[in-house]
């Protein structure tokens, strides 16, 4: 059983590190309430000070393009930081590349964060889940719990920041960005992205060679 951590201790750790409340709580639970160890663990994860910097304006940065092997998937991503100096750093460019690769690999991702998902998408997904046959014989309360859990998972599948990083699945893309905020000392924001899939939206020809030849002979 995890040790109960008081709100006061969590706030103290947050004040010292700038990390998020949940990150502080987890770090304190892992360290059994020892703040010094919790601070060290947060710094190793790159979470200390990241939250404080995340409120600062980021208007510099780069636009990075990535073409997946085989040239059938392409991604363009805009990654912002605070200064041109950080925008030129190798670590910043590597982060942009890793984010673009993640977007190429995770084609269900259409939004940067959960906050970016429109309410009509939430309603649409909920209506789909409520209508599923496996819920028909369950009570209303159970239905709601199952639907809420499924919706939460579905929305996370759509959110880039909630994806496990493909190179290190133990951390999320949000964690990866926070690590680089701590490393480079500036706020970093994934501003927008666009994914291109070869032939997407085009009506593909379904006729095979035999059908094409037969059609040519018939027409003649």
From TrEMBL:
GO terms for cellular component: mitochondrion. It is found in: Cytoplasm; Mitochondrion. The keyword Cytoplasm applies. Keywords: Cytoplasm, Elongation factor, Mitochondrion, Plastid, Protein biosynthesis. Residues 54-200 form the Translation elongation factor EFTs/EF1B dimerisation domain. GO terms for molecular function: translation elongation factor activity. The keyword Protein biosynthesis applies. Pfam families: EF_TS (PF00889). InterPro entries: EF-Ts_dimer_sf, Transl_elong_EFTs/EF1B, Transl_elong_EFTs/EF1B_dimer, Transl_elong_Ts_CS, UBA-like_sf. Associates with the EF-Tu.GDP complex and induces the exchange of GDP to GTP. It remains bound to the aminoacyl-tRNA.EF-Tu.GTP complex up to the GTP hydrolysis stage on the ribosome. Belongs to the EF-Ts family. HAMAP family: EF_Ts. This is Elongation factor Ts, mitochondrial. It comes from Cryptopleura ramosa.
